[in-house]
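Technical appendix A lists one of the benchmark inputs used to test multi-chain prediction within the project. The record comprises two sequence entries:
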Amino acid sequence: DAGITQSPRHKVTETGTPVTLRCHQTENHRYMYWYRQDPGHGLRLIHYSYGVKDTDKGEVSDGYSVSRSKTEDFLLTLESATSSQTSVYFCAIAWDSYSGNTIYFGEGSWLTVV
Amino acid sequence: GQSLEQPSEVTAVEGAIVQINCTYQTSGFYGLSWYQQHDGGAPTFLSYNALDGLEETGRFSSFLSRSDSYGYLLLQELQMKDSASYFCAVRGLLLYNQGGKLIFGQGTELSVKP
């Protein structure tokens, strides 16, 4: 157990409503990531954080914002959800900035926008 | 930027050996990682190559050649439970202002037949 939890795990929301997904870690890892996963596209990076209040955009950041006010929480917000944002969202955490063997994923959040 | 290419599907029989290739284009990175993901589950770490050459972990091995911008995951003595998606991934270099950014290939779906 890597000490990473996502909430909610499943959500159905209406187009145009705001949605916030939470990633919580108990490992004190510096790096945190939000990905979305869609058939045929693999895992695409939305935003990532390299410290409290330090975030940067990924490949598919349009329509998403993030916040990290404390080490353990990384929030992903869809300001006005659209059907194209229906997806599975994964959070990941990493201890350092370079290696590939210190990264752990949450169990995913299934979001449906109707 | 960074991009990674993998075959979308591979099929093999139980007991066989299968190789999943990953070619990449990147301005710089620390190493190549491999992840496994079963349907409905979270990606889990399999192997990591920080240096060129072969890394072996039980039935799984991974190889990296930076001069060829190429790596592969080798699965031996295939079992039905190895049916899953496999992703290669790289992390960017701080020098290129991508420190910590973790980018994935689109994934290879492996089907193991009896």
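The first strand of chain B starts at residue 2 and ends at 5. The mean pLDDT of chain B is 90. Comparable benchmark entries are summarised in Table A2.
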